[in-house]
Design a protein that fits this description.
Elements: H1 12-21, E1 32-33, H2 38-49, E2 55-59, H3 65-70, E3 76-81, H4 84-97, E4 102-106, E5 124-130, H5 140-143, E6 144-155, H6 185-195, E7 200-212, H7 215-222, H8 234-248, E8 254-266
Parallel strand pairs: 2-3, 2-5, 3-4, 5-6
Antiparallel strand pairs: 1-7, 6-8, 7-8
Helix pairs in contact: 7-8
């Protein structure tokens, strides 16, 4: 990857660059995602678990949208992210909505070289992470009360589309922020839980279509999070993208797999 002179997707450098080109963490392209996907199921599971007496820790909160939406159905939420501009935006949204039971922190749990979550011993009833990092599992037992719940939604490994190789290397699908890498997320989560002395309670896999009917939106997706100076412009790639649509598009456009793994664990 080094020879491409672009940050590895979802590395710290990638997030730092993304924070400079868009306000908050979100997907900037327009597409259609199939029903019964993991995003919806994650929200439903979290809401089913919450009650007014619970204290929640959100890992990788981004610009705070999730924490603020859940504030009214729990006692307190501690939400953190390592990107300062995301936390600043979250605090701005919080003040605008006059929500007082959410505490946003700019925090790196690995900053000292030793994993430590921003919570006291046995103070948390629920840890949630939506498409965030997984390092926090290693400190979950310390911060959680007995009987606490862990719920996370993880991007799941997915096939690299055949058309990817038709594009310049820097715009290959596997270099985009949407691609989650190879390897089994199921096995990775099981290993992390085992190392923390925990076991999986439940897990659900979701694999639904995500369709792009416009080449400009596909371009936005494959260049998401990459420095603009390091990738070709849309004008430079337009003919290649149009050719990709001519060869590979289905009735609803270019179709990718929207793969998610939703899992739940319990603190004994």
């Amino acid at each position: 990857m080094a020879e491409l002179n672009i940050p590895r997707a979802h590395s710290n450098d990638w997030y730092d660059n993304l924070s400079k080109v868009q306000r908050g963490y979100y997907y900037p392209w327009k597409s259609r995602v199939g029903d019964n996907n993991g995003e919806e199921a994650f929200i439903e599971l979290v809401k089913e678990t919450l009650s007014p007496d619970l204290t929640v820790l959100e890992v990788g909160c981004g610009h705070g949208e999730l924490a603020l939406s859940l504030a009214g159905i729990c006692k307190r939420i501690i939400a953190y992210d390592r990107v300062p501009s995301y936390v600043e935006l979250a605090k701005h949204l919080q003040s605008h909505e006059s929500i007082e039971n959410v505490g946003f922190l700019c925090y790196n749990a690995l900053d000292s070289g030793e994993l430590r979550l921003p919570a006291e011993n046995e103070s948390i009833d629920l840890i949630i992470s939506r498409r965030g990092p997984m390092h926090w599992i290693g400190d979950a037992r310390r911060v959680c009360r007995s009987g606490a719940t862990l719920i996370a939604l993880c991007p799941m490994e997915e096939p690299i589309p055949a058309w990817s190789s038709k594009l310049p290397p820097k715009t290959h699908y596997e270099n985009s922020g949407r691609h989650t890498g190879s390897g089994s997320i199921h096995q990775s989560i099981d290993n992390r839980l085992h190392q923390a002395g925990l076991t999986l309670h439940s897990g659900w896999g979701f694999d639904v279509p995500e369709s792009f009917d416009d080449p400009t939106q596909l371009y936005t997706m494959i260049t998401w999070g990459l420095p603009a100076a390091e990738v070709p412009s849309y004008e430079d790639l337009s003919r290649k993208l149009e050719h990709i649509y001519e060869i590979y598009a289905e009735k609803q456009g270019i179709v990718l797999r929207h793969c998610r793994y939703l899992w739940k664990a319990m603190i004994p």
